[in-house]
């Protein structure tokens, strides 16, 4: 099957509850880590026109959840992801009757954010870059591993954002089961519903995610899966003996690409039977696990491929075959260094 054989008219995306927030989000979102990141993803301003087209296609196809962060962008491009989303939303809304998606932004746990007011200020600055209010305000990572005394200020910041009407919902990222229970209890006691937890989750990063998913289900939270294609390993583009990505990712790929090959072959087998690409099967595995994957998209081909991962579900037998193949990979991808227990 050729790559573009799997691209047909975008399916009608299903909406799923976003925790207990009352919001409804598309079953697949878009992560914008790469929009503004030169170091890891090779962003250049010349890409902006195509990125606008990517945004337009996503929204017109039913994607209504975009994820960003106030630290997304490197060097002089700090905050670029939010700035681009602001531009793209404004341009799309002007042509489409004021239609806007939901924007979830993550506030970095910088050491100077020591008060609830610092979180409010961060949200206001993000809203300025986005040219509209933030919909979902999230703690980018917990300070529990290195500065536990800072946690309470971050949590109180979410309370201030929610009760002050700055956001429609609040969430966290990189929280493990133990810390997730703590913040859920704390916010609940303040009358603030925690909507979601966002962690690295894919066929190459399962063990932590499966434990977190159990807690999310118990607490009524959505689990957002970032890096659902394993930094590109599960996209089907890179194999042993082929050209590998340039930049920092090349070192990871050189070390791991051989051992991932059997898993990729199992994914391809499912894709061939389904008429789907490797990436579409890997993303649908996340959807079928009950998570909301947020793959990146730097061009229209990637958008179309992402959209083709939605609107259907892998069977129980296909899921089991992929789970077995994933368990045979000797090493999972390393979790975010800020991931807590």
Can you characterise this structure?
There is one protein chain. This protein is of the alpha/beta class. The chain contains 11 helices and 10 strands. Helix 2 (48-60) runs parallel beside helix 10 and helix 6 (177-189) runs parallel beside helix 7 (207-219). The chain starts with 14 loop residues before the first strand and ends in a 14-residue tail after the last helix. Mean pLDDT is 90; it is low at 1-7.
Draw up the topology in text.
Blueprint: E1 15-17, E2 24-26, E3 30-31, H1 38-41, H2 48-60, E4 65-69, H3 80-95, E5 102-107, H4 116-130, E6 136-139, H5 151-163, E7 169-173, H6 177-189, E8 194-200, H7 207-219, E9 222-226, H8 249-274, H9 278-288, E10 292-293, H10 300-307, H11 316-327
Parallel strand pairs: 3-4, 4-5, 5-6, 6-7, 7-8, 8-9, 9-10
Antiparallel strand pairs: 1-2
Helix pairs in contact: 2-3, 2-10, 4-5, 6-7, 8-9, 8-11
């Amino acid at each position: 099957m050729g790559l573009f054989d799997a691209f047909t008219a975008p399916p009608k995306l299903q909406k799923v509850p976003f925790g207990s927030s009352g919001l409804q989000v598309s079953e697949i979102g878009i992560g914008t880590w790469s929009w503004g990141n030169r170091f890891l993803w090779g962003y250049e301003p010349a890409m902006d026109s195509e990125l606008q087209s990517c945004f337009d296609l996503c929204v017109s196809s039913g994607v209504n959840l975009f994820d960003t962060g106030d630290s997304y962008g490197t060097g002089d491009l700090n905050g670029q992801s939010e700035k681009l989303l602001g531009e793209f939303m404004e341009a799309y809304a002007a042509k489409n009757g004021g239609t806007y998606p939901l924007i979830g932004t993550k506030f970095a746990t910088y050491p100077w954010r020591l008060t609830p007011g610092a979180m409010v200020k961060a949200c206001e600055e993000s809203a300025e870059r986005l040219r509209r209010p933030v919909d979902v305000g999230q703690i980018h990572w917990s300070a529990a591993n290195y500065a536990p005394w800072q946690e309470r200020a971050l949590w109180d910041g979410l309370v201030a954002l929610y009760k002050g009407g700055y956001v429609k919902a609040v969430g966290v990222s990189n929280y493990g089961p133990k810390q997730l229970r703590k913040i859920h209890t704390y916010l609940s006691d303040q009358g603030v519903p925690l909507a979601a937890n966002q962690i690295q989750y894919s066929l190459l990063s399962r063990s932590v995610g499966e434990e977190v998913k159990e807690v999310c289900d118990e607490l009524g939270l959505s689990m957002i899966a970032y890096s659902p294609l394993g930094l590109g390993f599960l996209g089907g583009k890179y194999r042993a003996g082929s050209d590998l990505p340039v930049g920092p990712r090349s070192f990871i790929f050189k070390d791991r690409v051989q051992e991932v090959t059997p898993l990729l072959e199992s994914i391809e087998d499912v894709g061939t039977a389904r008429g789907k690409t490797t990436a579409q099967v890997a993303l649908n595995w996340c959807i079928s696990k009950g998570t909301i994957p947020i793959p990146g998209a730097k061009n229209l081909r990637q958008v179309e491929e992402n959209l083709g991962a939605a609107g259907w579900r892998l069977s129980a037998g296909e899921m089991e075959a992929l789970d077995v193949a994933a368990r045979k990979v000797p090493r999972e991808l390393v979790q975010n260094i800020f991931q807590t227990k």
